Amino acid sequence: MFQITILLLYLLSAVAFALSRLPKFSARARLLLILAVGLAAAGLLLHGQTLFVEIRQAHGLSVSLAGAVSLIGLQLALIGLIGAINPALRGMTAGLLLLAAIAAIPFESQPDVTAASGLSWQLQAHILIAMFAYGLLTVGAIVAVYALVQDRRLKAGKLSSGNQLFAPLETTEKMLFTVTTAGFLVLLIAVLSGFAFVENLFAQHLVHKTAFSLLALSLFGILIAGRLFAGWRGRRAVYLYLWGFAFLCLAYFGARFVLEELLNRSWG
């Protein structure tokens, strides 16, 4: 029931944000903005409360694939709402909220619950930090795709009222590198905490997960260095980001899907 309410709040907020950017509704833009922010904030609060109850259970941490997707949805909505401070990014905010609404839809997934008595606070922190890092970098991937769409529209010379939903490409790229930097730092902390606190990190199905995570971390680091010291931007930067994200997906979601859905095994 809560998931449906969250979905509706995000959807209505997305519509309000999108309409507030269109010239046809310029006279009501302020009212639409207030409505959009209120709906998004309500959705965020309810989503956060619901997700906390789902993940932090009495018998331990529940880190199912469904919970991970829901966390990504929460981060999409949060970053979208923060981005809406810049009027030019409110069209993107609408898109992020739409995806957050989809992520909030419940689906079946085998939970991986570790007994609280057998899980130290360090390992709990590692798991939550890793999930947060994946969520942040997923948001970055969506922004990267958004930047590609903008780039192609500009080169194709497409002019329409719908252009108001797109921020200037430079603004989008700045947002992408801001999210990339934050995601890189959180992922670095997750990897370091994994080496420090996870026993047998290179055992069983953690080998390829660790390797792909390190490869993704390296690509994101190269991208940030290229931006800072060589001014990388445009398609080269976007494609490099998407390659890093692809390896991250292989490290996390690919492993989780195969283990939970195909092999009916828990993730460790």
How would you explain this protein's 3D organization?
- By secondary structure, the chain is mostly helical.
- The protein has helices spanning 2-21, 29-55, 65-83, 90-103, 121-156, 169-197, 206-230, 234-262, and strands at 56-57, 60-62, 113-115.
- The chain has a three-stranded antiparallel beta sheet with strand order 1-2-3.
- Strand 1 (56-57) and strand 2 (60-62) form a beta hairpin.
- Helix 1 (2-21) packs antiparallel against helix 4 (90-103) and helix 5 (121-156) runs antiparallel to helix 6.
- The two termini are 30 Å apart.
Task: Provide a concise account of the structure shown.
With 268 residues, this protein is mainly α. The chain has 8 helices and 3 strands, in the order ααββααβαααα. Helix 1 packs antiparallel against helix 4.
For the termini, the CA-CA separation is: 30 Å
Quaternary organisation of the protein chains: single chain
Using DSSP, what is the number of strands? 3
Strand content: under 5%
- Side by side, the strands of the main sheet go 1-2-3
Mean pLDDT: 82
What is the overall shape?
Answer: flat
- Rg (CA only): 19 Å
Number of discrete domains: 2
Task: Please report the number of helical segments.
Answer: 8
Poorly predicted residue ranges? 113-117
- Characterize the largest beta sheet: strand count, sense, and whether it forms a barrel: 3 strands, antiparallel
DSSP helix fraction: over 70%
Structural class: mainly alpha
H and E order: HHEEHHEHHHH
